Predict the 3D structure of the following.
Amino acid sequence: MSCIFCKIIDGEIPCSKVYEDDLVLAFNDINPVAPYHILVIPKKHYESIIDIPENEMEIVGHIHNVINKIANKKGFNETGFRIINNCGDDGGQEVKHVHYHILAGKKLPMYEAEKK
Ligand code: AMP
Ligand code: ZN
């Protein structure tokens, strides 16, 4: 059985699409925590970032290129944004298909890694 994000890629589950090319899909998060909350996912299923083999890591560079394109198009290239990749249980990953969160559109609150 394919995962929920694979179902979105296959069109079995609808999404609010932001960007698509041969390798990646970007869509609005269903439960946004910022004015812009966009998920960028590879079309190929990898459970998490740690499962991407070294010789396929160029997909991550491509995802970053796409994030820049989206930032430029939406205009938050000027105001700033945050990229988050949760990996595994301790990282808080709920959906086990690699995804990058883009958060933008407001001054974002401090997050765990910044807490003393
Ligand atoms: P994570 O905790 O990093 O695994 O984040 C998973 C994210 O996927 C959460 O922010 C959810 O709100 C989001 N999400 C889950 N299902 C959907 C869906 N069908 N469409 C859009 N976003 C979703
Ligand atoms: Zn998947």
About this structure: The chain has a mean pLDDT of 96. The radius of gyration is 14 Å.
